[in-house]
Structure formats: structure tokens, C-alpha cells
Amino acid sequence: MRRALLRASLCLVASVLPAGAAAQGLSAFAAQKAERLLRDKHSCLGCHQLKGEGGVLAPRLDDVRTRRDAAYIAAMVSDPQHTKPGAIMPRTRMPAGERALIVRYLGGDTTKLVRTAGLASATTADGKQLYAQWCAGCHGATGNGDGPNAKALPVMPAKHADAKAMSARSDDALFDTIEAGGAIMNKHHRMPAFGGSLGTTEIRALVAYIRSLCKCQGPQWSRNGAAL
Ligand code: HEC
Ligand code: HEC
Q1: Ligand 2 binding pocket includes 135 (Cβ within 6 Å)
Q2: What are the Cα distances from residue 27, in Å, to 14, 42, 64, 123?
Q3: Which of 54, 61, 102, 146 fits 140 for a cystine, CB–CB 3.0-4.6 Å?
Q4: How far apart are alpha carbons 176 and 64 in whole angstroms?
Q5: How far apart, in whole angstroms, are the C-alpha atoms of residue 41 and residue 132?
């Protein structure tokens, strides 16, 4: 009788804990915090799905632990480019504690976090090629905000081909958004930060490519002297 009661209450606990929390020994609070980081702070759900929400450019995160081993999950979250060369996942910079919590939540082994070996050996500084690889999935191949992932985002990706909108942005503003992500420019946080994976030369090439898409320049005030 007692044992049955105990089992019933254990079941109850298991059913109120968020998915994966029990498996990782995370408290419900810690698991919820990890979910908030993935959903509301970082750009992860720009590309990935979690609990039915998010983008379609990458595998679902709910069950990554059933597909990948714990070391791979840790390595992917800490240094995607060196773990899976060619993947369009940028390295997200974040405090060590946040990275460890996210990795644990996803089923990764936090002793297997890798120190990044720096930026991925710059593949190309060709803005067009970089854009096709890293940006087109959301922004569309011609910068019309209509990539295959656009509908899965809570706000529309910017139309880089729109001369009116883009001529209101300085090159510096475009650079900073690409480097540090939408959030620091008061844009949506699902616009990823690429500065952990692309260097200054690549980001400048992307800004120049956006200028070729909109066939426009930044505002006059921003064009005195060398911009970037
Ligand atoms: C710009 C899109 C993008 C963003 C943003 C992104 N990822 Fe990814 N991620 C990918 C893609 C694409 C893959 C699959 C790579 C492959 O295997 O080819 C991937 C793979 C992974 C994997 C391994 C999944 C598997 O099944 O192989 C994990 C774990 C992961 N990402 C976690 C994260 C976390 C955590 C964040 C946020 C900090 C994040 N990703 C942000 C695109 C993204
Ligand atoms: C996961 C989807 C996604 C990817 C990948 C992505 N973006 Fe974005 N981007 C967005 C969204 C969504 C917005 C709009 C944010 C808003 O309006 O709040 C945005 C906005 C921007 C802006 C701001 C434009 C403005 O109005 O000031 C720039 C610049 C930009 N993206 C450049 C890029 C570049 C360059 C790449 C590739 C290196 C890229 N983005 C990749 C989703 C994405």
C-alpha cells in the first residue's frame, strides 16, 4: 500500500517536471531556466524547434539526446564549426554557467565542453557566398525576407533588398547587428549573433553584399570618411 502510494507520487513528480529534467537530474526550476535561455534569450529557436516552437533549419532539440552522445552535444554547443564543419550554426557567446546549464538540459556532458580554437578558418570572404550559406535560410536568397525558415520566425526577417529600409541603416548598424545579434540593436533575439564564428573581414563582406542587394547606401551622416 505504502509502496503503491510512493510510486504514484513519484509518477506525479515525473509528470510535472519538464521533459528531460528528470533524466538530467535538473530541478524543475533549472530546467525551466534552460528553456527560457534557449527560447527567450539566445537565437537557438531561430533555427531549432523545442516543444513545438521554433525554426526549421536544424534538428529538433527535444530529443537530441536520443540521436547524439553527450560529448557531441557539449562540443556542438561550445564550438559548432569545429565539431561539424560547414554547419550553419554560429557559436553563441554566453557566460560559462549558461552554457553548462543548456548543455546539461540537452543531455550533454559538461566535462566535454571544448574551448573554441577561435574562429573557423575563414572559408571565404565572398559576401555573396557567405550570404547564401549563413543568411539565405531566413532572409531569402535575394534578401527579400522570404527564406524557407521565414514563416517559422516570430517576426519577419529584414528585407535586405528593400532600399528604403536599408538606406536608413548605417554600415556600422548592419555590422553590429550581424556581429552581436538582433537583441543588442533592439531587434528580435532570434536574429543570431555571428561574431563567434565570422571575423571582421567576413562581416564587412556581408555588409557590402547587403548594399549590393538594396542598391543603396547608408544615410549621408554615416558616410563621412571610412565607415567601419
Ligand atoms: C543559424 C541556425 C542555428 C542556430 C541559431 C543554432 N543552431 Fe544548433 N544547429 C544548427 C544546424 C543546421 C545543426 C545541424 C548541423 C548538422 O548536423 O549538419 C545544429 C545542430 C545542433 C545540435 C546537434 C543536434 C543534432 O541532432 O545533431 C545541438 C545540440 C545544437 N545545434 C544546439 C544549439 C543551441 C543550444 C543553440 C543556441 C545557443 C543553437 N544550436 C543555435 C543550426 C543552428
Ligand atoms: C534564424 C534566422 C536568421 C538568420 C539565419 C539570419 N537572420 Fe538576420 N534577421 C532575422 C530576423 C528575424 C530579423 C528581424 C529582427 C527584427 O526585426 O526584430 C533579422 C534582422 C537582420 C538585420 C537587421 C536589419 C535592420 O532592419 O536593421 C540584419 C543586418 C541581418 N538580419 C543580417 C543577417 C545576416 C548578414 C545574416 C547571415 C550572416 C543573417 N541576418 C542571418 C533572422 C535571421
Answers
A1: yes
A2: 11, 21, 20, 42
A3: 146
A4: 32
A5: 26
CB 169 within 8 Å of CB 218: yes
41 vs 124, residue with greater confidence: 41
For residue 64, what is its C-alpha cell?
Answer: 537530441
Cell numbers at 194, concatenated:
555571428
- Amino acid 23: pLDDT: 52
The ligand 1 site (C-beta within 6 Å) comprises: 42-44, 46-48, 57-59, 64, 67-68, 73, 76-77, 84, 87-89, 92, 102, 106, 192
User: What is the mean predicted confidence (pLDDT) over 18-42?
Assistant: 84
Alpha-carbon distance of 212 to 91, in angstroms, equals 27
Grid cell at residue 202: 567576413
Q: Whose CA is closest to 133, among 48, 78, 54, 194?
A: 194
Looking at residue 153, its pLDDT comes to 98
Share of the chain above pLDDT 70, in %: 85
